[in-house]
Structure formats: structure tokens, C-alpha cells
Amino acid sequence: MKDIALVTTSSFGEYDDAPLRMLRDAGYEPILNPHGRTLTEKEIGDLTLERRPVGIVAGTEPITRAVMTGGLPQLRVVSRVGTGVSNVDKKAASELGIAVLNTPDAPTQAVVELTVGLALAVARRIAETDAIIRGGGWKKLMGSLIGGKTVGVIGAGKIGRAVGRAFAGGFDCRVIGYDPYLAEDAWNGYGMERVAELDALLAQSDIITLHVSGSALIIGEKQFDAAKRGAIILNAARGGLLDEEALAVRLADGRVGGAGLDVFSIEPYKGPLTNSPQTVLTAHMGSYARETRVRMEMEAVGNLLTSLREGN
Hints:
Blueprint: E1 3-7, H1 18-25, E2 28-32, H2 41-47, E3 53-58, H3 65-70, E4 77-80, H4 90-96, E5 99-101, H5 108-123, H6 126-134, E6 150-154, H7 158-171, E7 174-178, E8 193-194, H8 198-204, E9 207-210, H9 221-226, E10 231-235, H10 244-252, E11 256-261, E12 279-281, H11 290-309
Parallel strand pairs: 1-2, 1-3, 3-4, 4-5, 6-7, 6-9, 7-8, 9-10, 10-11, 11-12
Helix pairs in contact: 1-11, 5-7
């Protein structure tokens, strides 16, 4: 009997079946996500009720202690398709002897390009104009330039630094960064100015972009009020990093000039931002460039197989 590998990402193998063939050729039978969206804890349990996987090729679903101890007694490896592993209880995994792996390099370029694309779409009001024309109208909407503006990057990890370089190099922007987890002397060579306080970054930035891996609230009502009036807010990192209802209010009253969001606290998103013409909303597709997605899936399967072979 073949060992089982649970594949929880919603579109795994959709653009190239090579990752699935790689699993099968190595002797593993994949269980695929049948729902086309992020799984709940219960759905993970339902999928593994009778067949016990030794590994998970994971998306962003919650892999909690309860999931690991309740229905996955043979689990040895969680291999994430993506960078962040905040959805995995790493403490529980360590205690249970379960390896947790990720693909930190593959999604960088795709997320950078989407972030810049969101900024351009919001600043030049591309989606608004598209909607007017599709509705039978014709109206020229006045936007604003990105070039020469100050871009505030929250989270100076690999993706945050790459986003900063794209704005600096492509649009001659001043780039400032805030990351309380980096020591002051670690910023040398980062290509962005370090700002010690979040409110100081918010007050100076024409464009504010989030690139942190956790899910704790960073921008709420107070932070929106501290931000430079008319700033553009971007989030292509994690849902829950900003208060979406407060953002909708600040967009309506003009405090925030526009927003481009790829991630939301609850997905699929159906909240008040869908009624805001100053927003560009995408469906958690930061890594959904064909080349990037296939590379991430191949790397995740490779990580899983290597770890299982090494006895983790």
C-alpha cells in the first residue's frame, strides 16, 4: 500500500501536473483539496479520517495542534507552498517531531510585480475607468504618479526588500522601511531608510505596503489616522494585518486615498471594500504567476520528499 500525501492547496497541479507526477513517481498517493478554497480544520480532518497522510503539501489552511494530534498520527512533514508558515503551529510540530518547511525564494518576483501592479492600478484609477467603459460610459479620471513618491515598506524581509528595490529603481521613489525585528545594524545594504517607529513611517509615506508574515493587526483606526492624508495602502502579504472596516471608513472620508488588497481577514471577501471605487481587490493571487506557481509546487514536493527520505 502506498503512503499518503495530503495536498491542501486549492489549485495544486492545475497549470502543470509535474508536481503530482513527482509525488506519484516517488510512491505517494496524493489526496487533493476538493473544495477549491482554503480548507477548515474540520475539512482537513474529514479528508484524513480514513487515510492517514505521512506528509502535507500545505497552503494557508490552519494546521493547528488539534489538527496534528486529532487525525494525523502518522504525519512527519508539513511542506508549505509559499513563504510564510504562520498558519502552522510550529511549537506543536516541533514537540511532535514534525518537520515544517517552506519555499522562501519562489514567490518573491510574483508578489513584487502584483504589489507594483496594485499601486499603479490604484494611483492611475485603472479599474475605475475600466468599469465606467464597460458600463457604457466614457470618462477620464484624474490620477496621480508613483514616480518620486515616498514608499513605506512594513516588513523588511526578502519580499519587502525586493518591493522597495522595484519602487526605487523603477520609479525613483524614496523608500523607507519599518521592521521591529531587525536590529539597526542589520539594515546596511537593504536599500531603504530605516524608520524606528511605525507612526513615523505612516506619516511620511505616500504609498504604504505591508510585507510581514504574521497575521496580527498592524494598521487599525489609530494607524489610519496617523497616516499621511491621501496615502495609498497596499496589502499583498496576509489577511488581518489591517482593519478592513476601518479602511472602508477612511476611504469614504478621504483620509486614505486608495487601496490595493490581495488578501483579506476572511476569504472569499464580501465586505464593505467591495463598494469602494478607490480600491483594487484581487483574490489572494500574489504567487499566481504560472511560472512561479509551478516552481513553488515543485519545490514544496521536493522538500517533502527529501525530508521524508531523511527520516523526519
